[in-house]
Every structure is written in structure tokens, then in C-alpha cells.
Amino acid sequence: MPGLDLTDVTALLGDLVGFPTESRTPNLELVDLYADRAARAGAAVDVVPGETGRANLHLRFGPDAPGGVVLSGHTDVVPAGSGWATDPYALTEVDGRLAARGTADMKGFLAAALVLLEQLDHGTLRAPVHLALSYDEEVGCAGVPGLLDVLATGRSGAGTCLPEVVVVGEPTGMRLCDAHAGKVAHRIDLVAAAGHSSRAGTEPTAVHEAAALATLVHDLNDPARGTSANVGTIHGGVAVNVLAPTCTLEFEVRHGADVDPDDVLATVRAAVDDAHRRLSTVGGHATTEATVRYPALAPDAGTPEVAALVDIVDTGAPGPVAFGTEAGLFHQRLVVPAVIVGPGDIADAHRPDESIDPDQLVRCGDVLTRTIDRFCA
């Protein structure tokens, strides 16, 4: 297989970052461009509709057969924000690096993978290469479950998807990683009755109940167990001399693969029920809603598939990443090993002047070439 054409990758990356596919906003223009190029290269294409204006995408290069590899990436980016020295949605070379929102996280991987597959002789494939693109990953892996439903049940227009391994191309500096924490996030809404603040000692208020719950969430932190809990937002009340009639609290819990988050949250659920009983005495209530949930990914280095990737990537024993990815969901739904390896540095993501070293894209092409040779050719 020939080496990756960096000129073509850079051109495609420029097209991809030109679409401001911030989470919860449309991504269909990017999906259409990517799908059209893949179809012209001989891929079987299935656009999997999602939320309004967004879609997942499943591409298959090679035979409709079991085995092979899934290359996974997300199309959404975090908002560009301010503080950029260049246009965040125009690819710009700065000191030899390629700058724009999404270059590292993770449109560089998407560009490298597609260009590589465009130049591949698909007739040499005994097993398929799947490309799986999701939406709204940055807001808690919200879009990929619909794609996984299609892949797991074989209903996709791109054919069956029974791979040997899944490679998620999040930015790891092209180091092989095989573990990450899981996450659950919840919103708690509390409603009480407004009243004079002199009655605070005898009547429940939404803010007081929220404050007690926030303290309880903080107490869930347990470094020894690998559990991290954080109250991210709390909003409520109308004035200092009024019993707070409403309050909303949002929190998350990150956990290891050996921790059941439902067990961790049992005390919080019981406390919300208690708060509801108190607030109902003044016509109020307390409700909780799960807003994010994805599983942890446990190390799977003992499998032959991961062992093969350790040799291919050649960065030593795989380790964990400090951020969540879709790898845990792929492993859970498809019941195959999943790893994380991709170009760019996570330290460059989610900040102004995000950029990637072109050498990382070349390295990505080399690793993907050898991965395809091992699992598909």
C-alpha cells in the first residue's frame, strides 16, 4: 500500500474544518462531503439519521463479510470561542503546524483515514475496513448509540459490521491506549414555594435542598476507588430575602470499569427522594434526569487483536487516557476489543489556536496502513 499523500490529507482537512460542526448543530454538509468522496472511492455508504440536522455515517470498504476493523471518529467540535490568532474555521499554517478548530480533535484522523482508503486497492481486502463517524460526542457521546444500533444489528446499508477490533482515533500523540473512565451526569430540578425569608427555619427551600445535595455529591469523591464527582453548575433563588422557589443542580461522576455508577449514586437518589417528600409539603417537588452516560473501557491487552496493535503502533504497553471516548460504547455494543490511538495532542484540543503537527498525520497513515494490512488485507 502506498504511503499517505500529505497534500491530499491537508486539502481534505481544510474542507472538514471549514464546517463549523459544533456539538448540537448541523453536521450534514460534512457528512455529505465525506460520504460522496467515499462513494466515489468505492465504499458502501449508509447515512444514519440522528437529531435534527445531524447524522452518523457508516462506510464500508471491501467485502460485506465478518472481520476487519472499524475506524471510529466524531464529526463535532467544541465551540471555537475567542482568543484565536487565526480564523478557527479556516486551516492555517502557523510555524509549521496546521491550526483550526478540530485539527487535533479529531478531524485530522478523519482526513487521514479517508485519504488512505481512497488510494487503497479494495480488491486486496479479504475483510472490510469500516469507517464510523458520529455526531455530538463532545456532549457525552450522545449521537453514537443510534449508529451502534445499526452496526450491531446489521441493518446498515453499508452491510454487516462484525469486526475483529475497533480503533478510535482520538488524539493520543499516536500512542496506543486501551482504557478510560466511564461517566454519568445528572440534572436535579427542585421546586419549592416562595415566601418570606424569616420562615427559612421552618419551610424547605429549593436552594437549601440543592446545597445539601451538592455536599452529598462531593462526598462521593473516592480516589482510592477511582471515583471522581463534581457539581458543575447550581442556579436558583430570586432574592436574598425570599425563600428560593427553584434551583437546578448539574453534576457528574467519573468511574473506573470495576465500579457500578448506579451503586455510587444510590445515596444521591435516596436523598433526592427525601428532598421530594419535604418539598411536596409546600406544593413543590424534586426530580432528577440522566443527561450523560457512557461506560468505562477496561484494559484488554491479553487479546491477540490488542497484542497485534501493540506491535503495530510500537509505543510500548498501552495505557489509559484521561478523557472519555466512544471506545467503551463500541466495546460494550459490538463485544470486540477497542483501543484509542490517533494523531495530535489532547492538550491542544478545546482551546484557542488548536493545531496539529503534519508529522502526526503521516504517522497516523503509517499506523492505519499496517493495521489494515494486519486485519483486512
Name the descriptors.
377 residues; alpha/beta; Aminopeptidase; Alpha-Beta Plaits; 2 domains; 6-stranded mixed sheet; 4-stranded antiparallel sheet; 32% helix; 22% strand; elongated
In words, what does this structure look like?
The protein has about 375 residues and is α/β, with parallel strands linked by helices. It has two domains: about 5-180 and about 295-375, Zn peptidases (Aminopeptidase); about 180-295, Alpha-Beta Plaits (2-Layer Sandwich), CATH 3.30.70. The protein is about 30% helix and about 20% strand. The protein is built from ten helices and 15 strands. The strands form four sheets. A six-stranded mixed beta sheet has the order 1-2-6-3-7-14, sandwiched between helices. Strands 10-11-9-12 form a four-stranded antiparallel beta sheet. A three-stranded antiparallel beta sheet has the order 4-5-15. Strand 1 and strand 2 (about 55-60) form a beta hairpin. Helix 5 packs antiparallel against helix 7 (about 265-280) and helix 8 packs antiparallel against helix 10 (about 360-375).
